Amino acid sequence: MNDMPGTNQTSITTFFLLSFKHLCQLQFLLFLVFLIIYIVTVTGNILILVLVVTDECLHTPMYFFLANLSFLETFYSSVVTPRILSDCLSEDGSISLGGCITQLFFYTSMAGVECFLLAIMAFDRYLAICKPLHYTIIMNFRVCLQLAVVSWISGILVSALSVGTVSKLYFCGPNQMDQFVCDMEELMKLSCKKSTLAKMTVFVACSIATLVPFVFIIISYGCILSAILKIASSAGRQKAFSTCAAHLTVVSLYYGTIIILYVIPKAGQSPEFHKGLSVVYTVVTPMLNPIVYSLRNKEVRGAFNKLVSSSFKNRIS
């Protein structure tokens, strides 16, 4: 630890994540549960990615963005879950300041990219339903690629802005976080010298990454709902809505937990409740996304059946 110039305090270079240490008798069970979730998450998202790449029927804008989302969820889960698995088997829970900042950067980057991707997927559904005659012209491969690149760059840049600001804060103790992952809010609480500039920077960055895409999604689905209600036949309305159902489910899961975690006042809510909700937000949701898209999507199920049939025939021959 290094002395801070002009003070007798020492800077903290190691933090301790309390994770689920209060459930000491259930550590091995928690390890098994998180391991199964991680395996299902990685397997499911990689399968979606393989199906989109190999099946020509899925070479459409909607599935191109779904492939991006699946790749992101695999990476996102791999940033968070292995650390949880390690903490379940170890009583240490320590993480260096550099390791904490690195994890925070990748964690917030993937969260930001997901927000932007979900907004673009909503825009894609808006064009497909509200502008069907111009859809294929507007959403060509070049435009889809550009939108995906913009999503990734935007999420990473916003994360770099907020995490870069937090990394410059000074920490002199305490050094315990009641979390299973390095958390932006927890890090700022542990800072010895409170910085209004840091708070404002993080607030603006988080608003750009979450609030702006959310407003865009609400507007897109408002237009979609208006267009669906104008369809004369009930069968037509149901078909139009079914193309949005999977995406709308994912958006509800993702933003529902964000709103409860960061928007609703925390008064009267226990730290364990918020930690449990964080598990849903960071661990469970990435697992549910491929399940939601595969169960409610005939094209994905059809592509999976063709892949299985092709693999089976190749083994026989």
Topology:
Elements: E1 14-17, H1 27-54, H2 61-89, E2 94-96, H3 97-130, H4 135-138, H5 141-167, E3 176-177, H6 184-190, H7 196-229, H8 234-262, H9 271-295, H10 298-316
Parallel strand pairs: 1-3
Antiparallel strand pairs: 1-2
Helix pairs in contact: 1-2, 1-9, 2-3, 2-9, 3-5, 3-7, 3-8, 5-7, 7-8, 8-9
Describe the overall structure.
It is found in: Cell membrane. This is Olfactory receptor. Keywords: Cell membrane, Disulfide bond, G-protein coupled receptor, Glycoprotein, Membrane, Olfaction, Receptor, Sensory transduction, Transducer, Transmembrane, Transmembrane helix. Belongs to the G-protein coupled receptor 1 family. It is a multi-pass membrane protein. The protein is built from ten helices and three strands; from the N terminus they run E-H-H-E-H-H-H-E-H-H-H-H-H. It has one domain: Rhodopsin 7-helix transmembrane proteins (Rhopdopsin 7-helix transmembrane proteins), CATH 1.20.1070. The N terminus is likely disordered. The protein is globular and about 65 Å long. It starts with 13 loop residues before the first strand and ends with a helix. By secondary structure, it is an all-alpha fold. Helix 3 packs parallel to helix 7, helix 3 runs antiparallel to helix 8 and helix 5 packs antiparallel against helix 7. The protein has a three-stranded mixed β-sheet.
Strand order of the largest sheet: 2-1-3
CATH class: Mainly Alpha
- Which percent range describes the beta-strand content? under 5%
What does the largest sheet look like?
3 strands, mixed
Total strand segments:
3
Radius of gyration: 22 Å
Report the total helices: 10
Number of domains: 1
CATH architecture call:
Up-down Bundle
CA(first)-CA(last) distance: 64 Å
Structural class: mainly alpha
Order of helices and strands: EHHEHHHEHHHHH
Give the low-confidence spans: 1-8
User: Helical content, roughly?
Assistant: over 70%
